[in-house]
Specification:
Number of domains: 2
Number of helices: 16
Radius of gyration: 26 Å
CATH architecture of the largest domain: 3-Layer(aba) Sandwich
Distance between the termini: 60 Å
CATH superfamily of the largest domain: Aldehyde Dehydrogenase, Chain A, domain 1
CATH class of the largest domain: Alpha Beta
Shape: globular
Largest sheet: 7 strands, parallel
Helix content: 40-55%
Number of strands: 15
Structural class: alpha/beta
Strand content: 15-25%
């Protein structure tokens, strides 16, 4: 009986994919923007024809979320993201300041290694592929083990469409035998230029260990703050709509609500009117036990499930039309499971006396899991909103909008995206909503606009026409350059 070593097979396939992508991208780098755009349009149109089939397929394979909501995300990417890519220049001349005589040249980074989540396997994969090709890069996907079949089918559709329009073979590919060893080989391969990790936090440390630039789009313990001047009914409707969409698996969805005490009764009443059920302490402990083991490890089988399913499984006597399960909390701590993210229609509920204390609570929540992803504030006080914007260590602050839809750019003018960068330093190189501009280098071209003797001030007040002035200016220029070199070398020498 022949035994196949999947680790070795995956490693070998990873090497072949990386080498092929490197050679293919060298040819792609010569393409003009218009030709790249035609391929992107073809990819989006091809997936759009299969959007419903892929939504159903991803739900059946992963058991996450709701197929009707996944269809919305698939269409959002194929239509809204594609529309925003039109007319965007990413390669060649992308900007020019004629007055200052500076030109910006967009240059692809090369080969992108992409890891996408099982929670949104179709929409994230499509958006990532479109961004990469739009910016002249090759991209290799390592599918999530829980969504291999769906991601493979999605990529096959795009590869067929792209290659029919001339995309070099190898520019868009995926690891068909997925193992951790193969994924590590991809990330560490010399051909890889950048690693994109979306919603796969378990691979973040390995990605950072590769020494390559990493863009990390994860989830985070994102709170929604309801301030006393907010439109309470609208704020609550937004939060419930956001948290129940695709059963709470979207990266920017709210994980908790922080409320000023003076409006808490009104918020609670509005939540109940919108199907929220406030659990007792005992019920909240039973629910938390479904999500986490005693040692803190997450349990499988509850992510992306409906509130009704979770209540029934935890033995909670919630009303028939329950939409969200809510747990009253006081403190953020390592021991409290509700201080962690739960990718489901479950919310922690905190009360604070005023917006300043609420501000501190939000910071605690954002930094607890060190992703500092997204914060929502519901308020009509511009001063409070400004203070939150200035003080919060967060990737994006959303104002008076549902977090799920505002974060992905559906109800805001943020760039429409399925990968939302983390706001914590060291977890990735950008906090942006991912666009093709995050996958290029910008080469600067600067034309000479002044003579050397007018560039560096001389030691005296005499004009440059006086004898001996030019040598003095050259000496001054050398002195400035030497000082700059010493500053740059200083940290390395220390």
């Amino acid at each position: 009986m022949l035994t196949v070593d999947n680790d070795l097979l995956s490693i070998q396939k990873a090497r072949i994919l990386a080498e092929n992508a490197f050679e293919a991208q060298r040819r792609l780098a010569a393409w003009p923007q218009e030709r790249l755009d035609a391929v992107v349009e073809g990819m989006a149109a091809a997936v759009a024809r299969h959007a419903r089939e892929l939504a159903v397929m991803s739900h059946e394979e992963t058991e996450y979320g709701r197929p009707e909501d996944k269809l919305v995300k698939n269409r959002f990417v194929c239509e809204r993201v594609a529309a925003n890519l039109r007319g965007m220049r990413c390669v060649g001349v992308i900007g020019e300041d004629r007055e200052r005589r500076i030109v910006d040249i967009g240059v692809p980074v090369g080969v992108v290694v992409a890891l996408c989540p099982a929670t949104s396997p179709v929409s994230t994969t499509v958006a990532t592929a479109m961004n990469a090709v739009k910016s002249g890069n090759a991209v290799i996907f390592s599918p999530h083990p829980r969504a291999c079949r769906t991601m493979g089918r999605t990529l096959d559709i795009m590869i067929e469409a792209a290659q029919s329009l001339g995309l070099p073979e190898g520019c868009l590919s995926y690891l068909s035998t997925v193992t951790a060893s193969g994924t590590l080989e991809l990330m560490n391969h010399r051909a890889a230029s950048l690693i994109l990790v979306t919603g796969v936090p378990g691979m973040l440390r390995a990605a950072r260990g590769s020494g390559k630039p990493v863009i990390y789009g994860g989830t985070g313990n994102g709170p929604a703050f309801i301030e006393r001047t907010a439109d309470i009914d609208r704020a609550v409707r937004d939060i419930v709509a956001s948290k129940t969409f695709d059963n709470g698996v979207c990266p920017s969805a709210e994980q908790s609500i922080v409320v000023e005490t003076c409006v808490s009764d009104r918020v609670r009443a509005a939540l109940r009117r919108n199907g929220a059920y406030f659990m007792t302490d005992e019920e909240s402990l039973r629910l938390a036990a479904l999500f986490f083991c005693h040692d803190g490890r997450p349990r499988p089988g509850v992510v992306g499930r409906s509130a009704r399913f979770l209540a029934r499984k935890a033995g909670i006597a919630a009303p028939e039309g329950v939409t969200v399960l809510v747990a009253d909390r006081k403190y953020v701590s390592e021991q409290d499971p509700y201080s962690r993210e739960m990718l489901s229609p479950v919310l922690a509920y905190y009360m604070e006396d005023d917006w300043m204390h609420a501000c501190e609570k939000c910071i605690e929540l954002l930094l607890h899991e060190k992703n500092a992803h997204t914060l929502v504030i519901h308020s009509n006080d511009e001063d409070v909103i400004r203070q939150f914007a200035l003080k919060k260590p967060v990737g994006r602050l959303l104002v008076n909008t549902p977090a799920t839809f505002g974060g992905m750019g559906a109800t805001t003018n943020l760039f429409p995206a399925m990968t939302l960068g983390s706001g914590s330093a060291g977890f990735g190189i950008t906090a942006d909503n991912l666009s093709p501009l995050n996958l290029i280098y910008t080469r600067k071209v600067g034309y000479g606009v002044r003579d050397l003797d007018g560039a560096v001030p001389g030691p005296g007040s005499a004009g440059p026409e006086q004898s001996g002035q030019l040598p003095l200016r050259l000496e001054a220029l050398k002195r400035v350059l030497n000082e700059a070199i010493q500053v740059l070398e200083g940290p390395a020498q220390r």
